[in-house]
Design brief:
The structure is a homodimer.
Chain A: H1 2-12, H2 24-36, E1 46-49, H3 52-63, E2 69-73, H4 78-83, E3 90-94, E4 96-97, E5 101-102, H5 104-111, E6 119-122, H6 136-149, E7 153-157, E8 181-186, E9 198-201, H7 207-218, H8 223-234, H9 238-264, E10 268-270, E11 278-283, H10 289-298, E12 305-306, E13 319-323, H11 329-343
Parallel strand pairs in A: 2-3, 2-6, 6-7, 7-8
Antiparallel strand pairs in A: 1-9, 4-5, 8-9, 10-11, 11-13, 12-13
């Protein structure tokens, strides 16, 4: 990345430091990659963002008024809660099957409410916090429901390229016939968070309004960073980077799952993600992971995110999100032993 | 800047690419610089932003509801209109004296309205688009009015360091006794827009809410860029850069003013800014600069921003904003001759 930034500044000089429209070659590269994933789109349908949180902010400004209905998974990323309930929307939480993803019958019931929900936000792959991915059948069905009930679906996908086993799945957006699905992708998890760079595939007709909202928020994304990322991509560096990254993540997930089996075999259940960063573990019995958090951090020096932090309905008090990406296998095994001492002393 | 980015990545490696809290040494440097300008503040009162437009977005989310009263200068930056009327506020436009800045009597009348305005946004130095700077006396008075009427004043200051003549003036924030003034500063105009980096000096008690709003919008600013800018600053490179930049700007302003005198001596009036980027010219007679814009661009290949674009009350149809920063003196003289052919053929 250092070399890419250096090359861009040497080549483009002041042009890489000025105000600038979205960098066309980057938009083109992203459009090509999305087409390979089954999403019909052109470069001018690719809208550059500072990452998915900004994409969510823009779309909630576009689609959501205070008091409107917003549909989300019953346990979901806190940043999604911030752009829905945090902005005065009434939130409907949909149950999630931990093997196949969101319950589409419950989703249809929510979509058919009067007044109609104004948007739904779903995480298709390696869900944060649940670790589950939607089946292909459910993706197709969700796109159909969005079209049938005219409820815009925002597909928040920072993780799908972090797959280390199983078959890559097409985004929900690949099944979108009537421009009811907004796709959000990000370089934060596949390259580096410091880039503050992501993209949105949006219906072409809405791009002027989306651009106006974006400009009112913070004008534009750094053209230096857009050019440097495009340099990285056009050198063919992403694929070997992802291969390495996902191999490391796979070893770490395996270590975490094995340690969970050893330490919590009888006393908890957990998801077995084929990629991403997170395992969702639910403890048997009446254990409150919020209540134990301080002890875990202070006494055992191990941290997790309590399940209740993700719940939009006040549930999941005995669950927790475990991140396997940041520690080597040995440290993960040690961490799970520490967790076990806290959870069943 | 290339060397600074390179040095940071060599020194900090992965830490410069990860999620990260605001970079403490940068906050410390900014606090020191603001203290030199008369603003009592510590590093932990410096909030890092992606530039002043984001600062305005955050503060309008903090302070403004749809239907609330917002006070702005009668002609002001379009980005300020976006975060006020663009978000459903009722806007009060205050007249501006082109020699001394905003009319403080009219400002007091607006501040004393019932219900109270929820915020005022003022540009203290080298106003965009008017080019005027507030006198010291008016700065003091505005801080006093903010305190007396409990109307928060947002001081949007991207330009004050672009001074090439006259005496630097303390910000309004320097006179703020009761934490009613929010100061917004930016590296966009003094270093490079591509950095997408600015700062806010905010009352300490509000920082948790400001942080929560910022995180919900786009999480954080790039730690790589924060570290690179701090590297640039701590090497002492800003002062010589500004000296050079302002010298160039001064020559260009002089060329623009001389050309205006030659071509529009009898048929227009204009401001004579001691810094910044903009001159505000008002044509005599019944000339509509919106109506002439297409002709100027298409026939004479010269562009300006029509005055009406900045007006919150529908005025200034015969005015225009001229930017002297981007062209060398000879090109500016040529541009003014082209303008003259359009405006009085």
């Amino acid at each position: 990345m250092r070399d890419c930034i250096d090359a861009v500044l040497t080549r483009d000089g002041g042009r890489a430091l000025q105000y600038s429209p979205p960098y066309a070659p980057l938009r083109g590269w992203i459009a090509g990659m999305m087409r390979q994933r089954g999403v019909e789109c052109t470069a001018d349908e690719v809208f550059i963002t500072n990452g998915n949180q900004q994409g969510l902010t823009i779309l909630s400004r576009l689609l959501l008024d205070p008091g409107a209905l917003a549909v989300v998974e019953e346990a979901t990323f806190t940043g999604i809660q911030q752009v829905t309930s945090g902005r005065g929307a009434e939130v409907i939480g949909i149950p999630v099957d931990l093997a196949t993803g969101v319950d589409v019958e419950a989703l249809e019931a929510a979509f058919s409410r009067t007044p109609r929900p104004r948007l739904a936000i779903l995480i298709p792959d390696f869900h944060n916090p649940l670790g589950v991915s939607l089946t292909v059948e459910k993706r197709q069905r969700i796109a159909d429901l969005a079209a049938h009930y005219q409820v815009p679906v925002i597909e928040d996908d920072p993780y799908s390229m972090l797959r280390f086993s199983g078959t890559p799945l097409p985004p929900i957006k690949a099944f979108d016939q009537l421009d009811q699905v907004f796709y959000l992708g990000s370089f934060s998890k596949i390259l580096a968070p410091t880039l503050r760079l992501g993209w949105m595939i949006a219906p072409r007709a809405l791009l002027p309004r989306i651009t106006a909202i974006r400009e009112s928020i913070d004008l534009e994304s750094s053209t230096l960073i857009q050019r440097a990322v495009h340099e990285f991509l056009s050198r063919g560096l992403l694929e070997p980077h992802l291969t390495h990254l996902n191999q490391v993540h796979c070893e770490r997930r395996n270590a975490l799952l094995e340690a969970l089996q050893e330490e919590f075999g009888e006393s908890a259940t957990w998801t077995r993600p084929e990629g991403g960063l997170f395992v969702w573990a639910t403890l048997a019995g009446d254990i409150d992971t919020w209540a134990l958090f301080e002890t875990a951090a202070a006494v055992e020096k191990v941290i997790y995110i309590p399940g209740a932090a993700f719940s939009v309905t006040g549930g999941h008090r005995s669950a927790m999100r475990l991140n396997f990406s940041a520690l080597p296998a040995e440290a993960l095994r040690d961490a799970v032993q520490r967790l076990a001492r806290v959870m069943h002393p």
